[in-house]
Design goal:
single chain, 277 residues, alpha/beta, Rossmann fold, 2 domains, two-stranded antiparallel ribbon, 9 helices, 31% helix, 15% strand
């Protein structure tokens, strides 16, 4: 199976393929972020990186069996009302469409998967019309302790909603004495503001709303209460939330790991979809 992954990030797609019991003979990854490529190659050294999606062309006669990707969501997210699929970042969706058409020139049966946020309705309708399928709506909280409501467009047949595993964030929190050794409470003005807006009572919740503070400004975004104040989620907690193998992001810094995991896929959702191939 030849796989082309656009906006590959840290290659959550490769983890999902393996977890679904499939094998990618060749995995072509389009990615430009250096620490994403570093993380991918640390885990999958045989990845074939093919560069910038806007410059990518499918070689004549190249058979691609599966094309996957999560095109940038910033302009169609509800966080940015008034933006749409034609925005500066989200318009990269049309590169996905272009390359899907090129893949179909050499393999009319190519399977595809596109992921994006459940945001601007007009943009969602445009995506659905162009791809010719309606999206499947899956919240990652069915398979992890993270609320992550996403849409998945695919021509993989008979895809269902995953069963609820009933995973509770409280089952993964280390004892406070272990946290105390790892964290230093730093009450800077910005953190105090975040604490007042986002942090109270998070420790008692079953799910977390978002992995990183930069992605969302809802209560319970990227912070949990700690020693009468708050702290960021650990790298381990971020990996578990995305159902990524522990230690997968060890080759990059904590902040880089947060960036990659925040933009990445919940692997168990993707592997569930891939099991229908």
């Amino acid at each position: 199976m030849n796989v082309l992954s656009l906006f590959d990030g840290m290659s959550c797609g490769q983890i999902a393929i393996e977890r679904a019991g499939l094998k990618a003979d060749n995995y072509y990854a389009s990615e430009v972020k250096k620490h994403a490529i570093k993380c991918t190659l640390d885990n999958y050294p045989n990845t074939i990186h093919v560069g910038d999606v806007t410059k990518l062309k499918i070689p004549k006669g190249q058979i691609i069996d599966l094309i996957i990707g999560g095109s940038p969501c910033q302009d169609i997210s509800n966080i940015k009302p008034g933006m749409d699929i034609y925005g500066e970042k989200s318009k990269l969706f049309f590169e996905y469409v272009r390359l899907l058409k090129e893949c179909r020139q050499y393999n009319t049966n190519v399977k595809f998967l596109l992921e994006n946020v459940n945001g601007d309705k007009k943009s969602i309708d445009i995506i659905s019309e162009i791809l010719g399928v309606q999206p499947i709506r899956i919240n990652s909280n069915l398979v992890s302790y993270q609320n992550r409501d996403r849409l998945y467009w695919t021509n993989i047949p008979n895809v269902t909603i995953p069963s609820d595993k009933g995973i509770n964030f409280q089952d993964y929190i280390l004892p406070e004495n272990e946290y105390t050794q790892k964290f230093k409470v730093n009450k800077t003005p910005s953190r105090v503001l975040m604490y007042e807006k986002q942090c109270p009572n998070i420790t008692y919740r079953k799910k977390i709303n978002c992995l990183t503070c930069k992605q969302d400004r809802r209560n319970n975004s990227g912070l949990i209460d700690f020693q009468d104040f708050c702290r960021y989620l650990t790298t381990q907690e971020l990996e578990l939330a995305q159902t990524v193998p522990l230690g997968y992001t060890k080759s990059v810094t904590r902040n880089q790991a947060e960036d990659l995991l925040g933009d990445g896929w919940t692997v168990d959702v993707i592997s569930h979809i891939f099991k229908h191939i």
